[in-house]
Hints:
β17 (200-202) and β18 (207-210) form a beta hairpin. The chain is an all-beta fold. Helices cover 1% and strands 41% of the residues. The protein is built from one helix and 44 strands.
Amino acid sequence: ITGGGTGLTYQPDLNYCAAPPATDDFTYTLAGGDTATVAVTVNCVNDAPSFTAVNPPAVAINAGAQTINSWATFNPGPNESGQSVLQYNVSGSTCGTLLFAGPLVSITGTLTYTPATDQTGSCTFDVTVQDDGGTVNGGVDTSSPAQTYTITVSVPTVTLSPATLPDGTLGFAYSQTITASGGTSPYTFAVTSGSVPPGLTLSTAGVLSGTPTALGTYNFTVTATDSTGGTGPFSGSQAYTIVINNGVGVTINQATGQVDPTNASPINFTVVFSTAVTGFTDTDPADVILTGTAGATTFAITETGPMDGTTYNVVVSGMTGSGTVIASINAGVATDGTNPNNASQSTDNTVTYDVGYPTVKSTNLKASYTGTGPASFRVIFSKAVSDLPGPNAVTNPANYLLVDKVNGTADTSSCGPVPGAGGVKPDDTQVTVSGVTYNNATFTATVTLPGPLPIGSYRLFVCGTTSIVDLAGNRLYNGEDYTFDFVVRAGTVQLPSTGFPQNGVTPLPIQSADKAYASYPDLRLEIPKLGLNLSIVGVPSTDSGWDVTWLDKSAGWLNGSAFPTWNGNSVITAHVWDALNQPGPFANLKSLRYGDLVKVHAFGKVYTYEIRESKTISPQNTSTVFQHEEKSWITLVTCEDYKEKSQTYSYRRMVRAVLVSVTEEK
């Protein structure tokens, strides 16, 4: 206190702040006895914030959009912990051509930017942070000075491979490919120092090839230049050393006449040394290296013409399954008396061994047509099949036998030849196949007919008995035919009526021969949730549809759909209400739900299907029930919604399931 009480000095605590502003009231007394009361209001003043960050890590060229979370960490002023970031301000950027977008810093401190295409280099940008404390009473809400940071987009490192090249042999063909990585392809290769061995040249694609004409050691450098635009191109180099010596060269390749792919064992390779050698025998298992995926384990070596010690035949066997057979010769297994042989070189030392037979994956034929049938159709095979001219060609029309089942039953059982059974039978009429084309890429044959098929009941045989073969000679279905039954009807066909009137016993007519069901003793349908285990019979397709009157307690496979367990859509039905005025096997079909199981027991195996769909459809909706599928599906169908007045069923219940597993019958 000075000036007789007229001057007063008051110092609040450093960084003191209260909200609302606090008032400090006090009374003081002078020496003479005078007193005074003072009220001091202390206002808050915002202190400048700060933040911490470091230069973002360098990124590669064309790295794309970059996001660095929590790049900047906000630090409020003293005693201002309740404040938050209003914004980060980016200024002074020198990144105009280096970046396509950014840099930006979000309120959470996340740094984002996108490098421009084909650009490299460095640029800087300044950053300040602004808090939400404001500038009242002379406060400062922005950090100072601005902090400067650097973004770096790195030049790519172009690397050549391999790091070393094999030595060569005088007078023996040499070929090695050098590749590059790290930059933008394609690359251009060149020798930039030293020289390659005489007789060899390096192509711009990186292939070093030719026949060495001089002995010696040769040092040279290869440089690969990439295709980066902008600040590119970029390059990398690799130093190489190749020694051309008098070692004995050797090649091993498929023998002349060796079929590839093949389903026959053994497989033959021809080995040729550059000079006569001794010591190359099959008594040493290290002389020939057998690799590949077919599991070949055994080889035998015999000398062959011109019988001068240079040429040998290697016979490989012991394959355990389909796959590749690769043969090569180790270095040092033979000698010309002075020099050992080098490791073998090859142009084609791989043979594909294939013992798996092709199958028909699918066809676009439908089980039922109305009015007119198809004038062409497609058959898709499981693998490549032969289209070489000849009887086994996939394009040979004779390998597609289409018959009209005049009496509704296919008496023809196969393409043939099967003694006493093969070929078209008198009760069937063969339909001419006018042409076949084949797409090697999709394994698809397109079969053309003279015109749309007329009304009738048909069976297609894709011939495996006469027969279509794959590229290795394996016959379709291992010598069995693929069959597909379909009908062309005059008018609209309804789905079978599987329910009798529910007002009493219904007398059944005598079942005629043309409507007789096919018996399959090894075929049963099991639906665990419904407690069903039914035998499956085959219901023939006629011009009027399928007559299931006599199914009784059996399930009926509707002919014209895929045979149960085969690839495709198999349609199976059973009574919802039987002729004895009792609930039929499929009375509770509508209670099945997604994920419930349906099982088909067939020929010693159990095929388990899982339900994917259940819905009602109209009786005329055959296209949905018989829809084409590539995989094995089952469609269960029966009547629903009985109308007592008309004694008919308004809808059909359709339940569809897909194959999920196949196990052995226990």
